[in-house]
Amino acid sequence: MAFPTETVYGLGANALDEVAVHKIFKAKGRPADNPLIVHCYNSLQIASLVKPYSSRVQALMDRFWPGPLSLILPKTSRVPAVVSGGLDTVAVRVPNHPLALQLLQLATIPVAAPSANVSGKPSPTRAEHVWRDLAGKIAAVLDGGSTGWGLESTVIDCTCWPHRLLRPGGVTLEQLQAVTEVAVDPGVYSDIFEKPRSPGMKYQHYAPDARVELVVGDHIQSTVKQLIQEKSKIYKRIGVMAVSEHVHAYLNVSVLDMGSQHDMRAIASSIYHLLRTADELELEYVIVEGLPETEMGMAIMNRLRKAAAYRIIIS
Ligand code: TXA
Ligand code: MG
Description:
There is one protein chain. The protein is α/β, with parallel strands linked by helices. It folds into two domains: 2-188, DHBP synthase; 211-314, 3-Layer(aba) Sandwich (Rossmann fold), CATH 3.40.50.11030. Helix content is 30%, strand content 18%. The chain is built from ten helices and 15 strands. Strands 3-7-4-6-5-8-9-10 form an eight-stranded mixed β-sheet. A five-stranded parallel β-sheet has the order 13-12-14-11-15, with helices on both faces. The chain is globular and about 60 Å long. Bound molecules: threonylcarbamoyladenylate and magnesium ion. Threonylcarbamoyladenylate (TXA) is lined by residues 5, 7-8, 10, 34-37, 68, 70, 72, 84, 87, 89-91, 95, 113-115, 152-153, 155, 166-167, 198-200.
């Protein structure tokens, strides 16, 4: 069953039941080596799933749970290999959403849940997105309206020191570093690395059907305008994902408003919906305005680089 969390909708199954967990992989078309995050009601429930952890890890749990932070820790044998994609670690988190918490409390079991999208599509931020991807393949969606953050949780690897940020999200690097030492994995910025520490990093994510290109640098508006002119010779249906302050600058294209450049949380919560909208409008080519990489901008840009399959134009 799919359910809302404060980040995106998840597709949940009993994390201790191998057969149930297999069904998640099947419904999503997810590669078997890409491990799942286990959701718990509180940190006590996590105790039997992971080996004893340090006071530094405890400090992260105390500060950020319930909330959008997943911690990778060495797992116990109670967690089936299918959940961890064969790794000896498991990602755990306590979500901060009333429906998710109620569900976890009633279920009394840990719930393995990846984002409730077909693999390779943007994560679902509304129940309709889940249904569009998975109708006929899953039992139900618990409809909690739009999710708050709109981007998946921050993932950090706590099996190494300093801890390592594998996926930026709602809990920012700045917030983490105020509590403990955290280094950024190079995979956050680029797909050129030898051995991904998180199996999920090697798969293309968040891809709409259109060819997406991301424009960064000091002259974004003029470069986007130039691209529109050039590419209209090749593509009929062009879109631009722009901040609200720039939406009137672009003519003869579908302009998708990401939200004000002064409200990065609003932008975070709109980008997956806009990438899906690009598909509904059958856009062939989408230009996305880049954003500053600080705080929530780090997570937003990480997802936009992936949506663009790392086609980045420096202006
Ligand atoms: O916000 C979220 O985290 C959402 C909601 C539903 O909780 N879930 C989510 O799950 O985004 P998923 O499966 O779409 O992304 C989990 C990411 C993947 O990139 C996966 O490779 C990584 O976490 N991951 C999970 N367990 C791991 C492990 N043991 N070691 C390294 N990476 C792991
Ligand atoms: Mg996902």
